[in-house]
Inverse folding.
């Protein structure tokens, strides 16, 4: 099964209503990022043969440190107005956070946690858009309650 983390603009990634990232926005982002490649499919060899998954917005992050052309890849898939990554490590979460700043979205896990630009979840902070962008001005201690 696995644990999914999403780039989303919705209050919660699983919400059926809310602002979505369009497939056109996702494709435009990928075309402007030399570290990304839009494949539209993924294949893996299993004991039962070749498993192939097709998705119009399925892309791979080529600069991931564990990337191997014939093995591990950092897949990001567009579905339902979100970009989803299965079982991301901290490096992948950090890349997702950089993407989220450009797409004006947030990085949110299946349990509702939001991740910052270092790939660390931050349960205590609000889940507002842009929460994880470096450009956000740091709050003073007394502003946390406002």
């Amino acid at each position: 099964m696995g644990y999914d983390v999403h780039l989303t603009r919705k209050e919660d990634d699983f919400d059926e209503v809310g602002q979505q990232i369009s497939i056109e926005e996702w494709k435009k982002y990928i075309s402007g990022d030399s570290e990304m490649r839009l494949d539209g499919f993924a294949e893996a060899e299993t004991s039962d043969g070749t498993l192939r998954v097709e998705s119009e917005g399925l892309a791979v992050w080529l600069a991931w440190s564990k990337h191997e052309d014939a093995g591990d890849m950092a897949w990001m898939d567009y579905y339902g107005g979100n970009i989803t990554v299965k079982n991301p490590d901290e490096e992948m979460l950090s890349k997702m956070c950089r993407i989220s700043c450009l797409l004006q979205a947030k990085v949110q896990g299946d349990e509702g946690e939001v991740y910052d630009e270092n790939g660390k979840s931050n349960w205590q902070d609000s889940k507002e858009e842009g929460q994880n962008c470096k450009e956000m001005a740091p709050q003073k201690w007394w502003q946390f309650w406002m």
User: Anything to note?
Assistant: Confidence is low (pLDDT under 50) at residues 124-132, 134-146. The CA atoms of residues 35 and 63 lie 5 Å apart. The radius of gyration is 16 Å. Residues 4-145 form one domain.
